[in-house]
Design goal:
Layout (H helix, E strand, L loop, with lengths): L12 H15 L3 H9 L2 H11 L8 E5 L5 H8 L3 E6 L2 H6 L6 E3 L14 E5 L8 H11 L5 E7 L5 H22 L2 H9 L7 H10 L2 E9 L4 E8 L1
Parallel strand pairs: 1-2, 1-4, 2-3, 4-5
Antiparallel strand pairs: 5-7, 6-7
Length: 233
């Protein structure tokens, strides 16, 4: 399915799966470059914070879900963890330069045994999933009691002035920059995809319902990104 255009309804179900796979296959070659430019390299610090929040023992096996080009896997390995990269997009996995084991899979149906990993990370992908509840259920299944998750995602600043500026930047500047450096259709769609995200309270409640405790949400960089952490109960 082609990447949705402005004015098209946001895809649902299998149509969304197909659109997301095509989009990330398309933008994989320049994905890292666009991320660095769009965020003024703040994404590098966000990923470091995400990995640091796990608090697991060195040598722990951690799965990075919707791993893209492997940025989080690089940071996980640097922290002494043993990461595994999982992504739906073969284009992204082909561009993965982390050097860790890679799996092509739908993160709603992970090819991992129950309780087989100590931690899980996910960066900027929650809004690209068809349904969050099966994803949270899979996280709960593959983690043992005490396992940790760290989910990094975009957010909306609580300050009204910053919120207005962020809306203008994310809605107007990001599509232009992404279009110049990569695929215009993809970077027109990505700001719209934020509409898929539930409200923060609902998101945290759904994680708790899936079997997670100590669920916490932390805003990063004045609220343009959010980090959600939790422990498998």
């Amino acid at each position: 399915m082609p990447i949705p255009q402005p004015g098209d309804p946001l895809p649902q179900g299998e149509a969304k799966v197909a659109a997301v796979r095509e989009m990330f296959d398309t933008i994989a070659p320049r994905y890292d470059l666009v991320n660095r430019v769009m965020t003024f390299r703040m994404d590098v610090g966000w990923r470091r914070t995400t990995v640091a929040s796990l608090g697991l023992a060195k040598g722990s096996r951690v799965v990075d879900l919707a791993s893209g080009t492997g940025d989080l896997c690089v940071e996980l390995a640097a922290r002494g963890y043993r990461p595994v990269s999982v992504d739906l997009s073969m284009g992204m996995l082909a561009a993965d330069r982390s050097g860790v084991p890679r799996l092509q899979a739908d993160v709603l149906q992970l090819p991992l045994a129950a309780g087989s990993v100590a931690g899980a990370t996910c960066g900027f992908a929650l809004r690209n999933l068809v349904d969050l509840d099966p994803f949270f259920a899979e996280l709960a299944r593959v983690l043992p009691a005490g396992g940790r998750i760290a989910l990094l995602e975009v957010a909306t600043p609580p300050n009204p002035v910053l919120r207005a500026g962020h809306r203008a930047y994310f809605g107007s500047v990001v599509p232009i920059v992404g279009g110049l450096l990569s695929n215009p259709a993809a970077y027109r769609y990505l700001p719209r995809s934020v509409a898929y995200l539930p409200s923060p309270p609902e998101l945290l409640d759904r994680l708790a319902a899936a079997g997670f405790a100590d669920v916490d949400r932390r805003l990063l960089s004045a609220g343009i990104a959010q980090l959600i952490t939790a422990t498998r109960a």
